[in-house]
Amino acid sequence: MKKWFYLGVVVLVVFEVANIFFIMPLPYSQRVRSIDLAYALFSWRWWIRAACAALIVAGVRDAWRGRPWGRALVPLSLIAAGFIVYATNFVMSADRIFLAPSSLTMRPTTQNTVDQARLVVGVDLNGDARAYPVQFIGYHHQVRDTVGGTPVLVTFCTVCRTGRAFSPVVNGRVESFRLVGMDHFNAMLEDATTHSWWRQVNGEAVAGPRKGATLKELPSQQMTLARWVAFHPRTLIMQPDSALRNTYSASFDYETGTSRSALTGTDSVSWHDKAWVVGMSVNGAAKAFDWNRLEHERVVNDDVGGTPVVLMLAPNGVDFFAFARPDASTRFALRGDSLVAPGMAYSLTGAGVSGSLRPLQASQEFWHSWRTFHPGTTTY
């Protein structure tokens, strides 16, 4: 019977380690297709723990009655197992490492405390503009808000460098989410209703009862707060959570690409895993544009999914904008803060004297992220 005790302890330890291994950025865990196994372990966690507890209880008396050294091994085994359970569930758990904001404070520019050189993910719906600094949402990974009367889930994954905004409405109801871990280095969110797991990068449910469902992506832009305020003077700006102020990074290394962190650092060589690209998906076709080349050319006239597009980098070398061109023959150049072509001139918002360019969703992210979640992508 004492073998049951040790079997229960070993299985419990192996299970708890495996339960966290496949959904956290541990060595090799993010490079295998393990989402179904990870979700199965998570779903059956209480049954597995109960079975291990039953084995431990059934065999503990015989294990204790063994040789003197065996008596010492029993409490040591229980202490070691308890430590593993605590560490994997309370120390290494994603939503305990990255806490959700206790409150969301949005302020106008006159009351803003955020450095205007910071990057933000901006959302403008129904004339209501709001800015969410990457410094904050990169830590929280997701915040819920209402913009222009529309519920919004604003997300950012620092390991992929992916900022997105989604509608959190699922089956007609506004859903709540928590950070549960990651898959292929992309943050995963768990809904509160069915405990399904959703990818941050595209809003797709990849495990659980809602597998195959997709959150509707809402238009968003990444740029400096200064630029966003210039475009939207009446914007509201997310402020730091007072209870978590000391957890936010004060450095600009991540935002400027000078960090060399193993997970969130940037490769300076084009097309390396953590090199920056600007990704665009139009009419079901995806294309990646190398950031280093964009810095050199400043304006790219190209075609994505049969749609003539223009991608441009602002003079500050940080803010970027993508639009549909009027036709394939129109080729734009950059003149100051304007896109110009023969007989045409447009501001960086896409506004012109005789009309406006249609904005396109474009995202700056790490190359490994774009190619993983857009396997058919082409490159410029």
Q: Tell me the fraction of residues in β-strands, as a range.
A: 25-35%
Report the helical percentage: 25-40%
> What is Rg?
25 Å
Low-confidence runs (pLDDT<50, min 5 residues)?
none
The CATH superfamily of the largest domain is: Rieske [2Fe-2S] iron-sulphur domain
Mean pLDDT: 95
Name of the level-1 CATH class of the largest domain: Mainly Beta
Described by strand count, sense and barrel closure, the largest sheet is: 5 strands, mixed
Query: How many individual domains?
Result: 3
Number of strands: 28
In CATH, the architecture of the largest domain is 3-layer Sandwich
CATH topology of the largest domain: Rieske Iron-sulfur Protein
Q: How would you characterize this protein structure?
A:
The structure is a single chain. This protein has about 375 residues and is of the alpha+beta class. It has 3 domains: about 1-90; about 105-245, Rieske [2Fe-2S] iron-sulphur domain (Rieske Iron-sulfur Protein), CATH 2.102.10.10; about 275-380, Rieske [2Fe-2S] iron-sulphur domain (Rieske Iron-sulfur Protein). It has helices at about 1-20, 35-45, 45-65, 70-90, 95, 135-140, 225-230, 255, 290-295, 365-375, and strands spanning about 105-110, 120-125, 130-135, 140-145, 150-155, 160-165, 170, 175, 175-185, 185-190, 195-200, 205, 215-220, 220-225, 235-240, 275-280, 285-290, 300-305, 305-315, 320-325, 335, 340, 345, 350, 355, 360, 360-365, 380. Strands 1-15-3-2-14 form a 5-stranded mixed sheet. Strands 4-5-6-13 form a 4-stranded antiparallel sheet. Helix 1 runs antiparallel to helix 3 and helix 1 (about 1-20) runs parallel beside helix 4 (about 70-90). The mean pLDDT is about 95.
